[in-house]
Amino acid sequence: MSINIVILTRGTNQASMISILIPVYNYDIAVLVHSLKEAMESIPEYSELIIGSDGSAPEYLARYETLLNGRVSIVSSEKNIGRAAIRNKLASQSKGNYLLFIDADATIPGTAENYLRGWLPYLKSAKVVCGGIIYPDYPPADPDKMLRWKYGRKREQRKASDRNRHPHARFSGFNFMIERDTFMKIRFNEELKQYGHEDTLLGYQLNKAGVNILHINNGLIHGGIESNSDYLAKIKEGIENLSILCDKVTDRKTFASSVRLVRAYDRLASLGLAYFMAGFYIRYRDRLEIALDSSKVSLFKFGLFRITLFATYRAIHKRRNILPIL
Length: 326
Fold this sequence. Notes:
By secondary structure, the protein is of the alpha/beta class. Helices cover about 45% and strands about 15% of the residues. The protein folds into two domains: about 20-225, Spore Coat Polysaccharide Biosynthesis Protein SpsA, Chain A (Alpha-Beta Complex); about 235-320, no CATH class. The chain has 13 helices and ten strands. The strands form two sheets. It has a seven-stranded mixed β-sheet, sandwiched between helices.
């Protein structure tokens, strides 16, 4: 994997038009798209909405096609090409000089018109703007979804003032607007096929390219909260990706500054605890997973699970030997 860093210059002044891009895989986005396309009618800056179907099943693809009209179109891939590749494909097909990426499982708090108007003051004044993630105030009725909700509320939902303290480290691909020229020069890295940390890498690349990120309070509600077991499976994929990235990036120090988990691992490894952490995961991973697949989840145990799993993948990738335990 080669990660190229470019130094970007501001493009020519032109009327700002925004393309809304929604990547989706087997998820019902009818409510989201209907509310957005209705709001677009009164906001001329929004030129189009493109749905990116990433290998969705025929029944879902048929649903997406019912949403199309003159300003709503679809880009479809017959097979699942991954989160990074479908986002790049959407950007390539877009016409706006700003791109608003919205994840398919997002829900708009309040009105779609207020949400869309919330981006307009930042056109031309910032190349990258992150709106933020919101989680429901009350825990899910299904106790099997407690881990994802609790982690989201405590770790991911942050006010803009907090996120702007470490803007690149807090970058998220869930709900953000980016200048098209900037995105096309960097793009998501398509070598990351499985879930996790494609937005971490993009945040790092923006940092290395000298592109500032502005965080604002224009959040969307994260609606697709996975079960505990499904979320743990995604976390495993994401942490494997993160360990791979540590060996691929050109500036390990800057990358570590953007990722809290990597910083924590580096501190512990400097104390000679890297192999102890990996050994802890191998010995106690079953107990940790049972504890986390519960209605009374502990974020401390979840943090222990993540850091020891990351230490295990670091040991594997340094030896270039995929152990059967994973």
